[in-house]
Design brief:
single chain; alpha+beta; 2 domains; 9-stranded antiparallel sheet; elongated
């Protein structure tokens, strides 16, 4: 094995350990914060086993940590370069004729491999775990859960059916909106007159109807009636329910193309799913951008001073980029620009800006 290959593997190992170590520390911190939140929720009930709470928190963890991957890669790259710089290893490499691009190449390769792994393996696992967490959360906390809805009164959906229109409310949903917990349905006839109100424990979407379990039906001038199951007709398709109640983040990378196609065939907006698909496709390049951004503040000699200030500026730059990317994503979701433009433009601008800074630092 040549000396160049040994050095490349050594650098790749240092970068990988720093990036994965940062990711692990972030995961532990997120687990502790989320576990406190789950404990707070369980305090309202008082009868949830600790093992269930831990398992629920672990199921929610992959989806949360996936969002912090870019930050972990940037911090890991900064940490690895600072350690190499502190031990004068970068100075020796420069003296041996290595350019900044040569000792950054292993970091770029490691970041790209991490990006590909998260797209093809980690993201599907995170999506599956999130879906299971939504189901378990709804079952454990019942009507007190509001995992999906952005408002305190739950998620609302108006639908048409063979028996007339109805308005459906649910405290929470899982299985991409196909199963609802704590449903409440206000049923109208074809003339728009109120018929009945149905409350139940769970509602599942079947072929042309909702099946409500343990339903309590209340009609005008009559006492409430209980039914083990109660059916409400609907013309809703699974795609329509998924678009109204589902979350794009709970769909894996491999399922997104099919869901986008089905949503568009149903005449619905697929912007959320297209944005999510582009975000996943851009992840290797995103991580590469974070490595380059980290390098712009980590290559200065310790003897020159102000390293701490440079690192702080680098971290602020990383947060600024993530904020810009989120704003661009929201613009894409609103339909003002194409999903491709909304996702890839911030990444491309960051790479160009970082490479410009590095070229100025190295070549003057």
């Amino acid at each position: 094995m040549t000396g160049g290959r040994i050095l490349t593997l050594y650098l790749a190992k240092r970068y990988a350990v720093a990036m994965l170590g940062t990711f692990f520390l972030c995961s532990v911190l997120i687990f502790m914060i989320d576990f406190v939140e789950v404990l707070r929720q369980s305090g309202k009930r008082g009868n949830v086993p600790a093992s269930t709470l831990i398992w629920l928190t672990l199921l929610r963890l992959p989806a949360y940590t996936e969002l912090l991957l870019a930050f972990a890669v940037q911090v890991g790259a900064i940490g690895a370069l600072l350690m190499l710089n502190r031990k004068s290893e970068l100075a020796v490499m420069r003296a041996a004729g290595m350019s900044v691009w040569q000792f950054l190449r292993p970091a770029i390769v490691v970041a790209a491999l991490i990006g590909v792994f998260t797209i093809t393996v980690y993201n599907p696992v995170a999506a599956r775990a999130r879906a299971e967490a939504e189901r378990l959360f709804s079952e454990v906390f019942g009507r007190e859960s509001n995992f999906l809805a952005s408002q305190s009164n739950g998620a609302w959906l108006r639908q048409e059916g063979a028996d007339g229109a109805s308005v459906l409310n649910a405290n929470s949903a899982y299985n991409r909106g196909m199963t609802l917990m704590g449903p409440m349905v206000v049923q109208y006839d074809k003339a728009g007159q109120f018929i009945e109100r149905i409350d139940g424990d769970k509602a599942s979407l079947k072929d042309g109807y909702w099946e409500i379990e343990n339903a309590v039906v209340t009609r005008m001038g009559q006492p409430p009636e209980k039914f083990p199951t109660y059916l409400i007709s609907t013309y809703l398709s699974p795609e329509r329910v998924r678009d109204a109640l589902g979350t794009a983040i709970s769909v894996s990378f491999w399922e997104l193309p099919g869901i986008i196609e089905a949503t568009e065939k149903a005449g619905l907006s697929s912007s959320r799913f297209r944005i999510q698909h582009e975000l996943l496709l851009s992840r290797p390049l995103l991580l590469l951008a974070m490595v380059l951004m980290g390098a712009t503040v980590s290559l200065k000699s310790f003897r020159s001073g102000k390293i701490q200030s440079m690192v702080v500026f680098g971290m602020l730059g990383g947060f600024g980029f993530l904020l810009m990317a989120e704003v661009s994503r929201q613009i894409g979701v609103s339909g003002l620009v194409s999903p491709t433009f909304a996702v890839w433009t911030p990444v491309a601008l960051t790479i160009v800006a970082s490479m410009t800074v590095l070229l100025r630092q190295e070549d003057g």
